[in-house]
């Protein structure tokens, strides 16, 4: 009986400590994954691609490109975001899952995905923007129709007349 109690206690202790260990490894594994993903470079390229797409749509922004890049570097840099990104990944994945992802991204296919994802995301954004632009008139019509519908549902919004004005009209 004494041996059974010790064994049960040992298993419970190991179980609880492994739960704590798994929870503690997620942030470490998340940071390692972000480094493997070369997220600093990917983030910088994504910012530049996004900014260039915006400038392409609004050419008047060309003279401000460097100012906008400085602003983005200040608030959207990898170093400034890393802790929050680690938290996000650590909340969504276990340490073991993050390690598995990291191992994948260290393979040739994983490295290729890391290399190509920024360009693919940029192309996807441009495709989406072209599609929206091509149908912008339809969106405007839908917004106009919804505005009219909402306005027709509102009670009359005429200003209430003051009692003195109502008395003048009665005379």
TrEMBL record:
InterPro entries: DUF2059
This protein's UniProt keywords: Signal
Region of interest (Disordered), residue spans: 147-171
Occurrences of domain DUF2059 (ranges): 81-135
Protein name: DUF2059 domain-containing protein
Origin: domain of life: Bacteria
UniProt keyword annotation of RNA-binding present: no
Signal sequence, start to end: 1-22
Low complexity: compositionally biased ranges: 151-171
Pfam family name, one: DUF2059
